[in-house]
CoA transferase subunit A (Alteromonas sediminis), 237 residues
Amino acid sequence: MSGFNKVVDSYSDAMKGLEDGMTIIAGGFGLCGIPEGLITQIKAMGTTGLTVVSNNCGVDDFGLGILLEDKQIKKMISSYVGENALFEQQLLNGELEVELTPQGTLAEKMRAGGAGIPAFYTATGYGTPVGEGKEVKEFNGRPYIMEESITGDFAIVKAWKADPFGNCVYRHTAQNFNPMAATAGKITVVEVEEIVQPGELDPAHIHTPGIYVNRVIKGDFEKRIERRVLAKNEETA
């Protein structure tokens, strides 16, 4: 089994090979299902000029947002500015290049990239600034724009469980963009809550097959909540 064991013991080994100017595809949605430790390692490495592909950029002091503090990100390809004031500030000041992409289109760009499909047509964005300058084709009387797929030098992903071969299972809504991101990186690194023994995962329950995964690391997660909303107690309201 040793020849197939993809488990690494340190975050420096997990992100070995990351260099300035590379493209990183990151799973997660806000702060849900994000590879917290891998993001922290990128910050510690001080890598700059990065293009980051992710639904959004976390919050000011957590998640991908910490990479904005030292301006490590040159360009964000995302669908949502979200709760991140620093993201908004750098965008408006021209310090951060942002390519806003509809959420479903972004997911399909990752999926298509991982499947080896260079481009696809979608009706989303036609007639808006998103579609400006893009090829338009008509199918069944409806116009569609052509969108190019996305691949990255690295994909960083968070999973619930994985075995040493890199087979992954995600938990509930933490699945979000992670399965698509996992397929689209030249080097895919998965940070997991639990590493199980070979054979423990039901093959029918595996979301990402290990063929897509290069490295697996056991992480410790804070799992911070982006915005806590509590229901009012009717008796005290």
Summary: The chain has a mean pLDDT of 94. Helices lie at 11-14, 36-45, 85-92, 103-114, 178-183. The CA atoms of residues 127 and 145 lie 9 Å apart.
